[in-house]
Amino acid sequence: MKKQGILNRELAGIFARIGHTDRIMIADCGLPIPDGVTCIDLSYKIGEPGFMVILETVLEDFKAEKAIVATEINTQNESLYKDVKQLMDVPFEEVSHEQLKVLSKDAKVIIRTGEATPYANILLQSGVIF
User: Does the active-site annotation cover 97?
Assistant: First the structure.
């Protein structure tokens, strides 16, 4: 049995197959999931688990080189945006929410949280550990 890292067997398997520049998404409970994209739904009630706890856990096991968020998060969810920016030390790209939904179609996985605040979605591009 694993002692640390992601315990969810589906996520652990997907993360083991992620390569440089592949993308994963962490999403709130309202983001539409595109057909054909694997969704690991971790939500169990409104607000749980929250976006930040999942982002923090993922970043312990996933090397990100870039993050993409919706421009709207700056004004519609300022506190979450500040928390995300403070947590991450990678370049940020901001696109419209509509464009972020288009980009989600190429994600290797969308991790759905129970988060129920506006624009709590982030696309993470995989880096390398060497």
Answer: no
